Task: structure prediction
Amino acid sequence: MAFVDEFRRARERGEIPGEVDAFHNAVWFLVGLCALLITMPESDEIRAPFVHRYLTTSRYGLRAV
Result:
């Protein structure tokens, strides 16, 4: 799964902490993003701020910021 590999590479580069489980965090991120996208109206004006907040919160949760 490409997303898991990207989380692993980020961990190897030291961009996210070593104790971050790449598989579980990638799955958590993708499930959350899918849930957000299918429950939001398709309007970019409505969807964009929510996606931005989701991405920001996820990065902080991983301590990648």
